[in-house]
């Protein structure tokens, strides 16, 4: 297996002997080796290039050069696409007018990513689902488009036109080329991200990330009390590395025992009762997720080891290092709604989609967000089947939650029953939805859905028709009207109280 994938690996062949010994593709071995090297460099970066010891310029240069080295080791000359994409987008930022710069930058950056994905899939190596150069480009695309919108918000809009989150993220000056490249291609996030805001990254480089920034951060959560001493990420890094080790062990142990492809095997479908097919699908997806847990948790540990990711303090005074965390494993595995699962899976991507699409799209933002997510992920048809299914699932889950959930809130026992039922339904719905995402091609994906008679598609459509739900914007408007009504009532009450007090004073006089 390792020998067969050598030709498809465009990076260094230095670790080819190790690849053959452990029987894993060389590109995956290079990826893990580079991430472990980045972890060591992150510790060195925090200790020996601390902001108190060196200038932001040196920190930017070192972080960028190390990032380029890791990219060259993993992807060879394909890593030049990172520079081309970043260079084209920076040119748009500099030469385009501020009024429409963010739109042009969005089109150029996403368009270049899609062009590279089309070339990789349909020209070179269709069906290869491994470490490839478009993976880092996906993170760079998030960073560039976020930066463009944040510059647009900071330089063209008044504070009254921005939400609290947009005010926190808004950028009031154009970054220099070095700052821009450091933000996009630093060694901590060049291979697996996660994405982060430009302001947070600059605060890390300049050493101001431990100071109080706002009463609330970009996610709308309290930043915690501020301490003068700089907190250490050691405990969190060790904890996340242990999570990585457990996740990797589970994935390597179960991925070959429970392949998702087995769920469309003709013999399996014809001879297995439907309820056992459901259980198998859930277990197969459960065995697949630790791969993502490993990659994203390791990336988070690398950033934390460098001193990036501090997010205030907990109530007990312990530091929080989850500013750029990409997942919450327990909340994923015990999610009781489709939305709860998505909110805790690939968190930074979900925030990016919310900031650049959902909050700014005025026509059906849910569908637009899912479509953008599919385009960003790649050009495999399975991605589009997954996200089209996700639209229907989200609408149905929202309808059930708004119409049925209130009846189960009358007591704790009813609430517990509701949580158990919705947990099971959520896990089955998620597994059903993401099968095309794993199978990639149209034929196998439709074969799976036909074996299930498209039952969840039909059920969700029936729920959406039978249980209509007001749009999010309508709900927000109702809440605002309610607040205004309450405010008027409070003012009227205060006015009446003042009149009564005046009358009492007159009587006393």
TrEMBL record:
> A biological process (GO) annotation for this entry?
lipid modification
The terms under GO molecular function for this entry are:
acyltransferase activity
Annotated region (Disordered), positions in chain: 477-509
- UniProt feature, compositional bias: Basic and acidic residues: 477-497
Q: Where in the cell is it found?
A: Endoplasmic reticulum membrane
Q: Which domain of life is it from?
A: Eukaryota
Residues passing through the membrane, by range? 29-49, 61-81, 101-123, 382-400, 420-442, 448-469
Keyword terms, alphabetized: Acyltransferase, Endoplasmic reticulum, Membrane, Transferase, Transmembrane, Transmembrane helix
Major subcellular site = endoplasmic reticulum
Alphabetical list of InterPro entries matching this protein: LPLAT_7/PORCN-like, MBOAT_fam
Q: Does the keyword Membrane apply?
A: yes
Q: Name one GO cellular component term.
A: endoplasmic reticulum membrane
Q: How does it sit in the membrane?
A: Multi-pass membrane protein
Q: Which residues lie in coiled coils?
A: none
Report what the protein is called.
Answer: Membrane bound O-acyltransferase domain containing 2
**Record organism:** Seriola lalandi dorsalis
